[in-house]
Each structure stands twice: as C-alpha cells, then as structure tokens.
Amino acid sequence: MIKKIPVHLLEPGMYVSDFNAGWLNHPFAFNSMLINSEADLAKVRAAGIRELFIDTDRGRDVGDGVPTAAEASRESAEQLDRMATTSRPVVAEARVSLAEEMNRAHVAYGEATRVIRNLMDDIRLGHQVELASTRPTVERIVASVMRNSNAMMTMRRLKSLDDYTFLHSVSVCAMLVTFSKVVDLEMNAIHDLALGALVHDVGKMRVAQAVLNKPARLSEEEYRHMKSHVVLGSDYIRQLPGIPALALEPLELHHERYDGSGYPRGLKGDEISQVGRMSGIVDVYDAITSDRVYRKGMSPAAAVQKLFEWSKFHFDPALTQVFVKSVGIYPVGTLVRLESGRLGVVIEQSDAHLLTPRVRVMYDAKRMHYIAPEVVDLSRPMGAGGADRIVGYEIPDKLGIDVSRFLL
After folding, report:
1. Where would I find the beta strands (DSSP E) of 151-287?
2. Which CATH number applies to 98-327?
3. How far apart are CA 206 and CA 227, in angstroms?
4. Which residues contact 246 (CB under 8 A, 6 or more apart)?
5. pLDDT tens across 372-385, in order?
6. Closest CA to 107 of 46, 48, 60, 170
7. Do 390 and 330 touch, CB atoms closer than 8 A?
8. Measured between alpha carbons, how far is 278 from 255 in angstroms, rounded to an integer?
9. Cα separation, 197 vs 154, whole angstroms
10. How many CB atoms lie within 10 A of CB 331?
11. Would you call 372 helix, strand, or coil by DSSP?
12. What is the pTM of this model?
C-alpha cells in the first residue's frame, strides 16, 4: 500500500516510492529507494522534502492515522476544488481575441527563443554579450501578454522537447509577465522583471555541459554543481552595465523557498521579495509541466494540484492561489474529458469559477472518433449551452490529438 507521510515519520527500513519533489533534483539516483540508514534520512531532510510517499509492501509500515496516497490526493483535490468554487478567478481582461493574438505570440515566442539561445551560446563560448539587444524581444513578449495573455501561455503549451533550457527561459518570462499583470505591478517593473526572467538561467551556460545535458537524474555531486548556476549567473550578469535591480530578482531568487529550504541563500518567507516568490512558483510550474528526455511532464491540472500541496511549505500560499486562479486549473489548450464521454479543448476561462471553462468539444472517447466541433460553456446550466462537466484530463499525444487545431 502507498501512503503519504510527513518526513519526520520516515525511518530506516521504509521504502520511498516517490520523494514528492518534482520541483527539485533531489540528491538520489532514483525517485524510489529503500531508506537504509540515518545518513539517508539526513539527505532527505537536507533536500527540503517535507512530505513523501512510502510503499508498505516493500518496506516498514507507519502508525495509524496516515492517509493512503489515494486519500491524500482526494483531500488535496477537494481543497483545490473548494478554492476554485468559492473564489472568483483572477482573469486578466484581454484586449484582443485569442485568434487575433496567436500569430503575433507565435512570432514573439520564436524570436525570444532565438535571442536567448544566441545569448547563452555567446556566454558559453566566452564572448562579450549585450543585454540591451534583448530589450525589443522582451517588449514584444510584454505587449503580447497585455493584449491577450492566453496566446503566449498557449505557445508554451505547444513547445517541443528539444532545446528545453531556451524554451524554459522564454516560458518563464511569458508566465511571469502574466502573473505580474494579474498582481497589478507597474509597467516599468514588468519590463525589468521580464528581462530578468528571460535570462534567469544563464548561469547554466557556466555549468559543465555534461551535467547540463545529462539525459537522466543527476548524482549528488552533479546536483551540487548544477545548483551553482544561480551564483554563476548572478556574478556574470552583475558585471554587465545598466542592469536594473529588479531584473536580478528572478535570476537570484527563483530557487529560494518559502520555508527556507531553497538555495543559494536559504532565504525564508518575506526575506524573499514578492518578485522572487512569484519567480519560484512560475519556474517550478513550467519545469514540471515540460517534457524532458528522462521524464514526461505533468498535465497542467496535475501541476496546479502539486503546487497547491507544496504551497503548505515551499511557496507563498497566497501568491500560489493567485497564480492558480490566473492560469486556471484547466488552462487554455488543456484536453479535458467530460462526463458525457466527449473530449474537448479548453479555449477560454470562465468568469464564474475555475472548474467551468468554455470548451471546444470535438472527440467521442467512447467510440474513438472525431465529431463536429461544438463550443460548450460549462458555466451555463443544463439546456443552455452548458450541460456537461469536466471529470478529468487527457494527454493529447496518447490519443494522437493535435489540440492546436481546435484552439481557434
């Protein structure tokens, strides 16, 4: 049986089936292992892990009163649902339609990917770089988000497996701008932090390439080396002229954690600036929803549930709720399964609550074939163009469905 336990109940002889730490490269070769010693326990605690899963069929059990994995997941989902249905979502008003903005977002996203790839290549090769050249690209990303944030958010959902480091940088930039728009930061501040978000991982170009590109989980020594990218990036960027102070915050603070378990400085709570706390949330969300060579990314729905769980310790709970409400439990572009057995692509968030978006229904999952596309507003009552509800989500690749065909 799989149970979820707080780390203080972990003892030698227990078998960890999942370290529940998708937001970090924990210092173990595998995501499951038998805890053999106090030294193993010390490593788990030092990694900042607060809750994890054990398999009682493969190791020692724990006392009564500990939930099974299914019970813990159900409780977390119910808490998330209560948050979704009792609070009006934070929906940033779109100035233009998604259809109008998609092409401009596509161009801006592609341009930003080329710019950050060239910048990082220059840093890796020891060439002189000029951050001022990235400003036009940053301005185009900000402008696109201000017109319709869903367009840029949808672009990050369609990114490929290749060039993760570059695509991650652009996605974090776009999402942090969207987040900043929701919390109503000033435009000058948004431009500065967008620049910082775009270059937040440049320190990775000063990490050994064998470690950076390793197609598997890092060893303990490799993990320590990888963590140095924050300081290496900060040292490099601070030497460049004209860097706004706010631009340094996403770079220097995106791995700090609300409970003090992060790095490189182990800052805690409000010791981390608001932009730093926002950057940590965004960085993790993109990381766990992205496909990597050694693992498949989570669906957005699973990712927001994990963020919600982890916000008990690692992330600012209030800001996490704002972020979840802004992107939605089922973001635009998510393939969802409806109670009727049909599948549909989320095309717009609801003004009512997070569980009732507008969906373009286009597939009969029972008969396994496409049907005539139909827009269903799940916030409307039965018989008024609604008449269905989401019961889960699907992985488009498994069904061979190209969701981009049905977004517009």
Report:
1. none
2. 1.10.3210.10
3. 11
4. 189, 192, 193, 196, 275
5. 999 999 988 765 55
6. 170
7. yes
8. 11
9. 18
10. 23
11. strand
12. 0.89
